[in-house]
Design brief:
three-stranded antiparallel sheet, 14 strands, alpha/beta
Length: 321
């Protein structure tokens, strides 16, 4: 018998994190503990209002799911944050019961370190320039944008970090016309990719147009069922476990997407090291990794992931997997 216990935790963000949809000073997460045979596995998710999720709705979904003993059982739940935390907790439990790491149970190569982007949240050009200068030593910066004033913000960031590679995230804040006008300017500034420039439910404007600046699907990509709708509009997909509904689907999505010719980015919500840990397995070999959320927190798990600058090491067993 496997006992599933779900509860909420709150972790402070260092300062304020702002995107085009609003600002936050805390990360509210749902943690699951799956216990059986004297072992306990853990998982974490971040309910996201953009997808109609709340902490209460995720807790209810987990409570209503019935008995679950293995990651296969978790797949009866719909894709989303609730399934993610259950799926990852059950994989952690499987590893502890077997005495083998998750990557071995899945038949994957042993994971190695990955280099992650570091995110600069939306702010005034002067504030973003100062933040960019503070992190100019990092090889990859992800810049949150959102419409009017974006070019000024990017010029300010480039002035603050003249050598760093940049990717940008518009969080659905652009139109096809804005993309067309900004793309040449962004390329000249050294931007290598834009994430979700158009609203996910109004992105037909990307289909078949020239995309000199590669476009990555975030809000438009959830699980494997999303992929047929993305062809011809996107060059890359951003895999987040809270969207796929866990590690099981994230790995399957990655493999199918690669076969279809998409490049892979592995991203995250603002959560702790426990939420990032399973995503490190998915990030192996990815074109871009964006698993920097613990670096944006003022407090993390007791056994956190190890970051050396922007290089993220795989999790130790005391954390997950």
């Amino acid at each position: 018998m496997t006992e599933i216990r779900a509860f909420t935790e709150t972790f402070p963000i260092a300062g304020k994190f702002t995107i085009s949809r609003g600002s936050r000073t805390e990360a509210h997460v749902v943690t699951v503990e799956a216990t059986a045979d004297g072992h306990t596995g853990r998982g974490e998710c971040v309910p996201y209002a953009r997808y109609g999720e709340t902490v209460d709705s995720v807790l209810k979904q987990i409570a209503d799911a019935g008995e679950m003993h293995t990651p296969l059982d978790a797949q009866k739940m719909p894709a989303g944050a609730a399934r993610n935390t259950v799926d990852c907790a059950l994989w952690d439990l499987e590893a502890k019961r077997a005495g083998e790491p998750v990557w071995q149970l899945l038949g994957l190569p042993e994971p190695g370190p990955v280099t992650t982007a570091y995110t600069l949240s939306l702010d005034t050009p002067d504030a973003m320039r100062a933040k960019a200068a503070e992190h100019a030593h990092r090889p990859l910066l992800k810049i949150k944008l959102g419409g009017e004033g974006d070019l000024e913000r990017l010029r300010a960031v480039r002035a603050g970090a003249p050598e760093t590679t940049m990717i940008v995230d518009a969080n659905e804040g652009w139109t096809p016309e804005i993309y067309a006008s900004l793309a040449p300017e962004l390329l000249a500034l050294g931007v290598s990719m834009v994430e979700q420039p158009l609203p996910a439910d109004d992105d037909e404007g990307l289909r078949g147009i020239e995309r000199p600046l590669p476009v990555c699907a975030d809000e438009a990509c959830h699980d494997r069922h999303s992929l047929p709708l993305l062809a011809g509009k996107y060059d890359m997909i951003n895999i987040k476990l809270d969207k796929t509904g866990g590690l099981t689907e994230a790995l399957a999505l990655r493999d199918v997407a690669v076969d279809l010719g998409f490049q892979i980015m592995v991203g995250c919500m603002i959560g702790t090291s426990l939420a990032m840990a399973p995503a490190v397995l998915v990030a192996q070999g990815a074109a871009l990794t964006d698993l920097d959320a613990p670096l944006l927190l003022a407090a993390d798990r007791d056994t956190p992931l190890v970051y050396e600058g922007s290089v993220l090491s795989p999790p130790v067993r005391g954390l997950w997997g």
